[in-house]
Amino acid sequence: MKTALLALSLLAGLAVAQTPDPYTALRTYDWQDRTAILAIQQQIVAAGPDAAKLRAVESGLVGVLTAADSTPGARSAACRLLWMAGGEACVPAVAKLLGDPQLSDPARFALERNPSAAAGAALLAALGSTTGGVRVGVINSLGDRREPTSVGALGKLLANPDVATAQAAVTALGQIGTPAAVAALRGVAAKDLVTGQALVAAADGLAAAGRAADAGAVLRLAVDATYPSVVRAAAVRGLVALRDPQALATVVALLGEPDSFEQRTAARQVAVLADPATIAQITAPLAKASPGTQAVLLTALQERGEAAAAPLALAALGHADAAVRAAALRCAGMVGGAAAVRPLAEVAAQPDKADKAVAREALARAPGAGVAQAIATLAMQGPPPVRLELLSILADRNQQGSLPLFKTAAREADPKIASEAWKSLGRMATPADQAELVTMLLAAQDEAVADAAQTAIIAASRRIDDRNAALAPVLAAVDTAQAEQQVLLLGILAGVGGDQALATLTKATGSTAEDVKKAAVDGLANAWEDAKALPVLLKLAQNETDRVLKVTALRGYLRIVGQDEGARPEVRVERLTAALAAATRVQEKQNALTILRACRIGPAVELAAKYLADAEVGNDAAATVVDLAAPQERNRKKLAAVKGPAVKAALQQVVETVKDGKLQEQARKLLAQG
Description:
Helix content: over 70%
Oligomer: single chain
Shape: flat
Distance between the termini: 50 Å
Number of helices: 42
Number of strands: 2
Largest sheet: 2 strands, antiparallel
Low-confidence stretches: 1-19
Strand order of the largest sheet: 1-2
Structural class: mainly alpha
């Protein structure tokens, strides 16, 4: 074995020794085996910035280009490699290929990135010896190189009868972007897309070279109305970006044009312009602009935070176009200050849902202390519809200074105002407010207001980590409150939770006052969240004489068991066993069997099997057995099948006792699967 391995090793070494160097191998390249190309690429990478090593690679590739037996594929590959490693030495060999239609493109690529002046000279010389598509490619390469020495020759091609040649020359001059190139472009008669884009590109080049004034002059040429929209839009964006002295005048001029892409582009630039004269100059064209442009312009003024735009925004609140109204509402909210509060509030109080939502958002986000005071004042003194909106908006603004206002409004006789104020209190009240809120609740005369107060105190209490501390004022008031007040207080206890709340509710389930007892049972059954209420609910389900309360308690028990996914399956099965024993109605039995499907253990199957003979829920029990015995996927979670003798026995019982044919067939298949 060792001898065989040694022989293989020697053969491998011999193969390496006999492998030709990659440059020799590359000469026969036929577009298939890239081994030689990869080897040379590795040499280039390994050379890094080492000029001597790169020149060695260049020399090897020139040898490929000049060898008589090199294939076209080899020469093409060599040119592409010279794109990474070429210098002045390779230029003569590469230049000879520029006129070859098959190799012109890779030759151009090799010269485009070549840093030597000779590469540019070679491309320039090729202009006179090439035609058609090959010449267009050479022109493109001169543009990509930004070859300044080619401007004169390219300028002579601008009037060439071959359209592709002339347009390529225009584009290349734009890429070169020198003053001489721009001078040549000025002589182009066509005001088309190609010429316009070349001017914009030339301006970019001038700006990058620090010649902002020259760049602005070129962009002003491209704004000419005879150029296509995209060119004019790019030009105005460029003028604004350059902070050109004529930028504002150009923007204003475009705003005065008929509805167009350029008009909307100009409107967007208002957000960037810093000239304080902007507002005065755009007022006239704004009134005549299309709705689309008006919306864009108002949005730009909003983004700019231009206070002087407030009158324009307020005047547009009643515009017929929805987009203009929305932009005006947002702009007024951002820059209008206190003066915009009433107009925005009146819109927020209107029935139009879209405008209402935007107006509310604008008021909620409107900056400034004066705005907050104006909202607070109007929330107390305005018309009822406006007050309703502003009470909610004040809560959206989350200003703690508004709490006294909410408390005052919550005591008002108008039930709508009082209820809305309670909603805001529920969002903003602090632990220090709890006792006062309970006192206010007990004093409420209107049922709707009392309900709103109850909901608000629950919401405020649930934001406090120590639930017992949060409920201290409620617990203190329960024993002395009247029956209807106790109902409200018990609802708060059930909605918040905590050990003391549970103890109070449990005690209240034995109250002789019917309404109080019902409130306690309802609270535990329908609002309580954790499993601590299960013992009292089960006891009620087992022993309560009032049938309605008995059913309510069992339903609540099952609700909590179903929601308590953190409980161990064995515990849930035990709880469901108790629930099924206490159940007297089909609905609760069915509910329990459905919950049982989440308990993927043998005892769950055994429990379901006990009800296969039940005339009312036999099919439900069979469906649960089948569900547990097969793998399931719920809520993107895979549930394993329950296995074991008890499962097989239950499936066999389904086959033998259940009349539903579909369930029987499912059970048979599961039995056959083992």
